[in-house]
Structure formats: C-alpha cells, structure tokens
Amino acid sequence: MIVAHILASKGRDVATTTPDKTISAVVAELSARKIGALVVLERGRLAGIVSERDIVKAIGLRGAGILDDPVSSIMTRDVVTCRESDTINGVMTRMTRRRFRHMPVVEDGDLVGIISIGDVVKARIEEVEHEADELRTYIATA
Fold it and tell me: What band does 133 get if pLDDT is binned at 50, 70 and 90?
C-alpha cells in the first residue's frame, strides 16, 4: 500500500499556519481542530511544522511566556516529507526511527496532504487483515 491510498480515504485537507502567528494562536488552532500538528507555510511553501510536542518542550524549557512568541521560534524547520508513491512500511519506518507523528506529503514542491502515524498504522492493519482474509480464502479453496 502507498501513501496515495491513505490520502484517497482520509482526504487532502492540511491545517496550516504561518511563521509569524503566535504560539498561543497555534495552540488555539490545534485545540479547535483537535489535531496534533500544523504545517507552517511561508509564501505558500513548506517552511516547517509545529506539533504539540514542540510547544510542550518549549514551555518546559523557557516557560509560559513563550506563548507570545512567533511559531517560527519553535517550529521544526528540517521537515521530513514523503511522496504519494512512498510505501506505508517505508513511511512507518521513518516516522518510528525519527520519532515524529506527522509527515507532510509533497509532490513537485507542492504540499498535497499530511499523514499521521495513526493513519499509517490504520492502513497497515487494514492491509494485514486483507492479506489474512486472502490466505484464509486460499486455504479454504485449496
């Protein structure tokens, strides 16, 4: 299974913000949307990603006063992305090894979606269940 299959079922909507938004505005957006990360766009291009984990880490290190700072001060700039043609297993391996939960999907420099570790695990479980069903059918008809 590939990333395009996940996007086909979950959709391609990506929650975004800009580097100048305050961290408190980002917190409000994450809470309102009930999501764990926002992709940061600057002039329409991927500039970074900010997650709940980034915010908690920043507050822990620098205190609650950080909430008035721009998201650019804490966002992850070196964003690991994937393509629609990437396999679920490959994406899951990268997310697990690098210890992050959200991965933007980029094609030809354009943001086309985002997947989470939950999306990837769900897709992998569905794939394994499908394979098991096929094996049961094969054994029953053999």
Answer: confident
